Amino acid sequence: MTTAANPSVDFRKHPRPVGHLFGTEELALTGEQLQFYSENGYYSPLPLLDDRQLTEMREALERMVHQPDHPRAHEILSRPKLKPGQPTPMIYFQGAWLAEEAFHDILFFPKLTRPLRQLLGTPQVRFWHDQIFYKPARHGGVVAWHQDYSYWTRTEPIGHITCFVALDDTTLENGCLHVIPGSHRWALLPTVPLTGTAADMDAIKQVLSPEQLAQFKPTPISLKAGQCSFHHPLLLHGSYANTSDHPRRGVVLNFMKADTRSNDDQKPPMPGAPIYPKGAVIAGDLFPIVTPG
């Protein structure tokens, strides 16, 4: 029995790789790549997964989605309930890193954590949370334009970064990520409902200034399966529906600086986490340091 199917393995108690799917290879960003991120608020593409790693992650994702008796189903937040014979809407959930070894171990992959250190400008990086966005063929919904940090104001200061890992090729047809270059320099915007219909996609425009609307020029981020992209927590981004005949599967991995602190002593920073006093560093089993040392 592998750890992927072993309910006795508590991945939160392992702030290091459990298996051997991901090696010790590093990939450093160049000065030019770092400058592009600084100016635009995102960087893409970066090769991350080889064929074996990609296959393992796809298989693990399908287990979480389609295996009713998955041994660690209780760790998957908002686990989808699929109905046979009915169209499947976009599947969204969190907690994959606690349910499947591959999704746990990728957090500590030096090929990922080295660029994270560079982009955050810090020697240590802490995991924040993961998100699965699985857009089934012909039925995948939209993710409305938004800034990630507008949902994370219970933390301070702004020291986060997001990595989107493509498990399938992402294209215009299947709902790839779109960004507004340079919008990471805008002030914090109000929150909007993230998922819904095509009509909900542009809800954020109602709160944009004339100057921001003039800069609202969406740029698609097309990725090959196994590639990833990075974006700033204030970058305005979203994705359209999957109109293709194939699924568009991806995992979003959110990270933060190791000294990120709580700004809310009434609610936990993430479901299942404790409440932290204001000013306390958000640490513990659910928020491991992913960089060596």
What's this entry about, in short?
With 293 residues, the protein is α+β, with helices and mostly antiparallel strands.
Can you describe what's shown?
With 293 residues, the chain is an alpha+beta fold. It has one domain (29-262): Jelly Rolls (Sandwich). The chain is built from six helices and 13 strands. The strands form three sheets. Strands 1-10-6-12-3-2 form a six-stranded antiparallel β-sheet. The chain is globular, with a radius of gyration of 18 Å.
Can you lay out the helices and strands and say which pair or pack?
Elements: H1 31-40, E1 42-47, H2 51-66, E2 91-93, H3 96-99, H4 101-105, H5 110-120, E3 125-135, E4 142-146, E5 155-156, E6 160-166, E7 177-179, E8 195-196, H6 210-214, E9 219-221, E10 227-231, E11 237-239, E12 248-257, E13 261-262
Antiparallel strand pairs: 1-10, 2-3, 3-12, 4-8, 4-11, 5-13, 6-10, 6-12, 7-9, 7-11
Mean pLDDT comes to: 92
Strand percentage, roughly?
15-25%
The CATH architecture is Sandwich
- Our measurement of the CA-to-CA distance between the termini, rounded to an integer number of angstroms, reads 31 Å
Query: Could you give me the name of the CATH homologous superfamily?
Result: q2cbj1_9rhob like domain
Main CATH class:
Mainly Beta
> What form results from the Cα inertia axes?
globular
Helix count from the secondary structure assignment: 6
* Biggest sheet details: 6 strands, antiparallel
> What's the number of structural domains?
1
> Strand order across the biggest sheet?
1-10-6-12-3-2
User: Whole-number radius of gyration?
Assistant: 18 Å
What is the chain-wise order of helices and strands?
A: HEHEHHHEEEEEEHEEEEE
* Helix and strand composition category: alpha+beta
Ranges where pLDDT stays below 50 over 5 or more residues in a row are none
As for the CATH topology, it is Jelly Rolls
Report the count of strand segments: 13
